[in-house]
Description:
single chain, about 100 residues, alpha+beta, 4 helices, about 15% strand, globular
Amino acid sequence: MTLADHAARVIEVLERAKKNGPVILVGHSRAGMPLTAVGNARPDLVDRIVYVSAWAPVDLDAAGYYAAPGHPARDGPRAAAEVLAGSAAGFSGAPAAD
């Protein structure tokens, strides 16, 4: 199962959930990657994203975090870069820049 598969499945669920009211998407640990992918792909489906001790690629895209010193490449950074085409910094649930 790839990052794109995870994001696609979450999007399927959110398409149904959004009909019932505001959606808060919460993820822990490496779930920050698909959270960000979903937020970038379908911001209309998510009112807030909450990162709980999770990768929160808001300053860099996920591929940038993978490439940072001290972070070994996992699950193919190119695959992550294809799914996470942008930054979540502008997303409504992201913290404001100083």
